[in-house]
Structure formats: C-alpha cells, structure tokens
Amino acid sequence: MSQQLFSTDIQGNFFLRNPKGDKPTNIYFVVRLHRKLSKFATGVKVYPDQWNQTKQEAYVSHRLMEIDNKNNQIVNERLSCIKANFAAFLDYICSNPENIVNFQKILKRFFTNNMDSKDTANINI
C-alpha cells in the first residue's frame, strides 16, 4: 500500500550555522521529508542579531548602517531565489508523486543547477 503525502509534509527552513555568535554566520536551507534531512549552503552570511527567524529573512532597516542594509538585501535576494527553487521543486513533486522516493536527488538537482538563476523549467530529471 502506498503512503499518503501532503504538500505540508515537505518543509524547508533557513537556519544559521552559529545563531549565538557575534560574527557573520552562514545560512543553510534545510528540507525535511519523511524524517530525512537535506541541507544546502546558501552561500551568504548574516550577523545573527540581524536575522529574523520567524520571517526567515535578514533585517533591512534605517537603524542599521548602510553597508549592513546592502549586505542584508543581497542575502534576502539570494534567499528569495532559493524559495523560488523550492516552490518549483514542490510543484514538480506534486505533479509527479511517484518520484517522491528519490526526492533527495531531485532536490539536489533543483538547487545545484539553479542556485543562481530563477529559471527552473530546464531541469533534467
């Protein structure tokens, strides 16, 4: 008997490598499905005190220095690209539920092939 799968079962969240530090720390994107984790480095860093865990983004505010705002805008642009890739992955999995067994390989292809571009239509799976 096949197992039920709901789109809410697949979760993707951003986590800081060192959330209690005082230096810029790496941001990772972690996807959970069926108790399996897939972890991807985003390639950007943020100060832990400038990270909003509930909104999953870096703060951009007039209270921060201009250089911090510029860096945080770069971080947020990169994270929005990753969110778009994850949404494309979810669309693919929902359209092809038989491929859920290989979700880690498929997810890796979505993130390694398209980390810098928003075009997710040309994925070879």
Q: In one word, what is the shape?
A: elongated
* Share in β-strands: 15-25%
Look at the structure and give the mean pLDDT.
85
| SS content category | alpha+beta
Rounded Rg: 16 Å
Order of helices and strands: EEEEEHH
Number of strands: 5
Span between N and C termini?
A: 26 Å
Going across the major beta sheet, what is the strand order?
Answer: 1-2-3
pLDDT < 50 runs, ≥5 residues = 117-125
Please summarize the sheet with the most strands.
Answer: 3 strands, antiparallel
Number of helices: 2
Query: How helical, in percent, are the residues?
Result: 25-40%
Topology, element by element:
Layout: E1 11-16, E2 25-33, E3 36-46, E4 51-52, E5 57-58, H1 66-95, H2 103-113
Antiparallel strand pairs: 1-2, 2-3, 4-5
Helix pairs in contact: 1-2
In short:
The protein starts with 10 loop residues before the first strand and ends in a 12-residue tail after the last helix.
